[in-house]
C-alpha cells in the first residue's frame, strides 16, 4: 500500500489537521485497517471483562475445532433437583496460549442444557450453542464444576470464521483498545474483523506480561468433563432483607418521646452511645 501524502498545512486548516491527528492516536492500538470510525462500537470497561482479567481468570486459553457433541443427563446429587441435561463439546486443540490439557490435543467441555432421552431440549439462557466443525477461541475456567466453563460464559468464546474473529453473537472484533475488545455493532456490518493471528498475538503478549515461564509450567492441567458426571445447580443466594427488630407494643404503636429523642441524639453523635449527664445534686 502506497503511503498517502499529507495535505498542505495552512492557517485555514491547521485546527482540522490537529483534530485528525488526535483521533488517529486514539485508535492506533490493534485496530483493523479499513475499519470505519463511524461504526457503533462497544467500549464500556464495566460491561465486559478486560483482556488482562480474562487471562488471569482462565485456567486454559486455546483455539480449536469442535469434533463431537454429546448429550447426557448428569447424576443427581443430594442438593440438586435430580438429573440435569448437559451438552459435552469435544475440541481438537490447535493452539494453546495459556495452560494445558491433560489430553494434550483434545478437551471436552460441559455446558448446561441439551437433549434429554425423551426427546425434549433444555436451552439455558445466555449459553453458547455449538455445532461440529465450529472454530473457536476459548477462555476456559472450572470445567465440570460449573454450568458454563468459560470466563464470562458467552464472552469467553470467540468464533473464528475464515481468518476473522467474532464475538459469540456474531459481532466482528475490530480492535483491542486499552485492554478491551472493540466490536462493530452495526446490523449487517461489512467491517473487516481482526485476524485470529492478531488476537492470539495480543493474548500471548498479555500472558507473557502477567506470568513467568516457571509460573506457566506450574499450572494444573485442565481435565475433560465426562458424560454423566455428578452435577447440581448452584444454590441461589438469599437476597431477602434482614429481619428488623421492632419495638414491643405497649398498647400503642407510637414510640415514646424519650426513645425518639435518644435516637436523634445518637444520629447526631455519629453512632456513638449517648451518655446522659448525672443530674446535679
Number of helices: 5
Number of strands: 10
Give the terminus-to-terminus CA distance.
99 Å
Radius of gyration over alpha carbons? 28 Å
Largest sheet: 6 strands, antiparallel
| Overall pLDDT confidence | 76
Please identify the structural class as seen in this structure: alpha+beta
Order of helix and strand elements from N to C terminus: HHEEEEEEEEEEHHH
Shape: globular
Point out poorly predicted stretches.
1-29, 33-38, 235-239, 244-255, 271-281
Q: Give the neighbour order of strands across the main sheet.
A: 3-2-1-6-7-8
Helix percent band: 10-25%
Give the strand content: 15-25%
Characterization of the model:
There is one protein chain. The chain is of the alpha+beta class and about 280 residues long. The chain has a domain of about 180 residues. Helices cover about 20% and strands about 20% of the residues. The chain contains 5 helices and 10 strands. The strands form 3 sheets. A 6-stranded antiparallel β-sheet has the order 3-2-1-6-7-8. The termini are far apart. The N terminus and C terminus are likely disordered.
Amino acid at each position: 500500500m502506497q503511503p498517502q501524502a499529507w495535505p498542505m498545512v495552512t492557517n485555514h486548516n491547521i485546527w482540522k489537521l490537529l483534530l485528525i491527528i488526535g483521533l488517529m492516536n486514539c485508535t492506533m492500538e490493534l485496530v483493523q485497517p479499513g475499519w470505519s470510525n463511524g461504526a457503533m462500537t462497544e467500549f464500556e470497561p464495566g460491561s465486559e471483562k478486560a483482556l488482562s482479567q480474562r487471562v488471569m481468570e482462565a485456567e486454559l486459553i486455546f483455539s480449536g475445532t469442535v469434533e463431537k457433541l454429546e448429550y447426557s443427563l448428569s447424576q443427581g446429587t443430594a442438593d440438586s433437583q435430580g438429573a440435569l441435561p448437559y451438552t459435552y463439546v469435544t475440541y481438537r486443540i490447535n493452539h494453546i496460549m495459556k495452560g494445558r490439557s491433560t489430553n494434550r490435543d483434545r478437551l471436552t467441555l460441559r455446558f448446561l442444557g441439551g437433549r434429554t432421552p425423551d426427546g425434549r431440549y433444555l436451552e439455558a439462557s445466555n449459553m453458547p450453542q455449538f455445532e461440529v466443525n465450529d472454530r473457536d477461541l476459548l477462555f476456559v475456567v472450572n470445567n465440570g464444576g460449573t454450568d458454563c466453563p468459560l470466563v464470562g460464559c458467552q464472552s469467553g468464546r470467540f468464533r473464528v470464521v475464515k481468518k476473522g474473529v467474532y464475538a459469540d453473537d456474531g459481532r466482528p472484533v475490530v480492535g483491542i483498545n486499552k485492554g478491551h475488545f472493540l466490536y462493530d455493532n452495526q446490523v449487517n456490518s461489512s467491517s473487516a474483523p481482526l485476524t485470529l493471528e492478531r488476537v492470539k498475538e495480543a493474548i500471548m503478549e498479555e500472558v507473557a506480561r502477567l506470568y513467568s515461564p516457571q509460573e506457566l509450567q506450574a499450572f494444573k492441567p485442565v481435565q475433560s468433563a465426562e458424560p454423566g458426571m455428578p452435577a447440581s445447580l448452584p444454590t441461589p443466594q438469599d437476597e431477602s432483607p434482614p429481619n428488623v427488630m421492632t419495638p414491643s407494643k405497649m398498647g400503642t404503636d407510637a414510640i415514646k418521646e424519650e426513645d425518639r429523642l435518644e435516637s436523634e441524639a445518637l444520629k447526631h453523635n455519629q453512632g456513638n452511645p449517648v451518655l446522659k449527664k448525672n443530674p446535679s445534686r
